Amino acid sequence: MTDFVTPSPGSSPVGYPTPIPTAKPTSRGPGAYVTLLGGGLLTIGSFLPWGVTTAPTYDTLNGLDKATDGDITIILGLLVIAIAVARFTTLVHPVVQAAATAIGVASAAIAGVDTEDILRFMSRNGWTGYIGIGLTAVFIGGLASVLGGIVQTGRPKEPLQQFTFREGMGHFLGFNEEQAVALAADMNVRMDDLFSPDFFVQFRNTKRDWDDGQA
Fold first, then answer.
1. pLDDT tens for residues 119-140?
2. CA distance 99 to 83
3. pTM surpassing 0.70?
4. Domains of the chain by residue range
């Protein structure tokens, strides 16, 4: 039987590229970054001033004061951040990705309602002032969450180079699917090992001997 000749680890047969290692598939994409930005703005904005009075006295109304809904937007912001983190680390169902859109709509609506309430309260009491940076951040964060949920990332396809490499090896070695299964069973190896560049020469020689034995 022909001796096995194994190329050095990590090398590739002449004429064939080294396949790119397959990374764990995730839902990472532009939408994930926008979703994370939206969740961050929602959370941080909840702690910042939502209203500022300048006359008759200077004062601020923060998102966590009783008259506002900052406690709600904090929770919504953390939920959006959780969705974004999930998209960065694993495949996320489109419905879960789209949940950021629903949360963003709710957050923007809260910001709009609270803006109207704060301005009405100031006007009714004869005060002058303006909307604080925190409420503005919440509104922008809600819009970003809406956009992030719309811009989704689907299930990635198998890398083209990896597919081409495997199919190219099978064609070069003269494998068809039935022969590959039989050869893998004969050698007591996994199917994927038949196409490993580290064992290319070994499989080529084994295939040759195997074919001779079948003749």
1. 998 999 889 999 999 999 999 9
2. 8
3. no
4. 30-150, 160-214
